[in-house]
Amino acid sequence: KLTVSLPHECFSEHFVDVNEGDWWHEAVDHAVEMGYMNGMDATHFGPAVTMNRAQFVTVLYRMLMEPEVEVTGVFTDVPAGQFYTEAAYWALENGITAGATASTFNPGGKLTRTELVTFMYRFAKYVGADTTITVDLDDYRDAAQVPGFAKEAWAWAVTHGIVSVDEI
């Protein structure tokens, strides 16, 4: 059997913090190739940097090829012209987020695990992905700490292996 290895373009080769042997290398290549993520600057991707709320909704927004947004001006902390401006309003408009408060988005806020699974669950529903739930959160000793708004999202994320936990 003859195996031929074809050269492929490495979309992350310009990042000094992403190397061929890193476990995240292929994922970074894919995210950059698809235009979902651009990196922190021209030479740093930031694989160890904690993602914030603005960055995460921007990735989801870009995954859908940046659809047109009708809602604007609701969040007092989302100025026009930022990389995340349209994404934050798209997320609000389509039920991915309700905001941190009625008038703020908290774009620089650290993305919590609960926000991550909630945004992903709502995104999955939005795009028509499988949102069945087969896990009972009561099996986890700290399930009572999951906020009510996120219980369904957590159960979905555990059901589909998006988060793997011994406890929540």
Describe what this molecule looks like in 3D:
With 168 residues, the chain is mainly alpha-helical. Helices cover 32% and strands 0% of the residues. It has 5 helices and no strands.
Give the distance, in angstroms, between the N- and C-terminal Cα atoms: 48 Å
Rounded to an integer in angstroms, the radius of gyration calculated over CA atoms is 18 Å
Number of strands: 0
- Bin the strand percentage: under 5%
Average pLDDT taken over every residue: 92
Structural class based on helices, strands and sheet pairing: mainly alpha
Question: Based on CA inertia axes, which overall geometry fits?
Answer: globular
Largest sheet: none
Q: What is the count of helical runs? A: 5
What is the helix fraction of residues, given as a range? 25-40%
N-to-C SSE string, H for helix and E for strand: HHHHH
Low-confidence stretches: none
Which descriptors apply to this entry?
168 residues, 0% strand
Topology:
Layout: H1 25-34, H2 53-63, H3 85-93, H4 113-127, H5 151-159
Helix pairs in contact: 2-3, 2-4, 4-5
TL;DR?
The protein has helices at 25-34, 53-63, 85-93, 113-127, 151-159. With 168 residues, the protein is mainly α.
